Amino acid sequence: MIKILDNALNDSLLTSIKERINARGFPWYFIENSAYPDDKELIKQTQFNYSFYNENEMRDPALFDMTNSISDILKDLLELEKTYNVFRLRWGMTTSINKVHKHTPHTDQSWRRPHKVILFYLNDTDGDTYFYDKEHKIIDSVTPKENRAILFDGSILHSSSKPIKFSRRIVLNINLADKKYL
Q1: Would strands 57-58 and 47-54 be described as parallel, antiparallel, or unpaired?
Q2: CA–CA gap between residue 96 and residue 22 (Å, rounded)
């Protein structure tokens, strides 16, 4: 169901992307509701993101080139079919609230088309990614680890969670669909 790949990128590429994403001027945008929260949970659903490529709309060509090359590398290493192409790239950062909190289970645009998701963890942190069955019961989890990538079917309910021991959790979200659906 979930394929995990550790030490996904070579040291040079990893260092380069970390420098770019961790730079003081990186354009993180605050979002109040990362995954369709209930009103009472709003404060806990907050995160920062930079959705720089979505359905052929590109905000940052230089970051797109670097990140798309990462997605190509990960597709090959995770043995994803060559017919899958990126339709969304988004960096996400959740910050600690000093207590356990799982975000709302969701799918990434699965109502639009069948697709695959690759999550690439940029840093060592807690704040697991959880996977759920149709009744929202946890069936699996993956702990973020620097340079770890995971692949799963986009129809699987999943959620991020807030880190506790670390100040932030940074993840690249790559959504891919077979070219017949694009």
Answers
A1: antiparallel
A2: 17
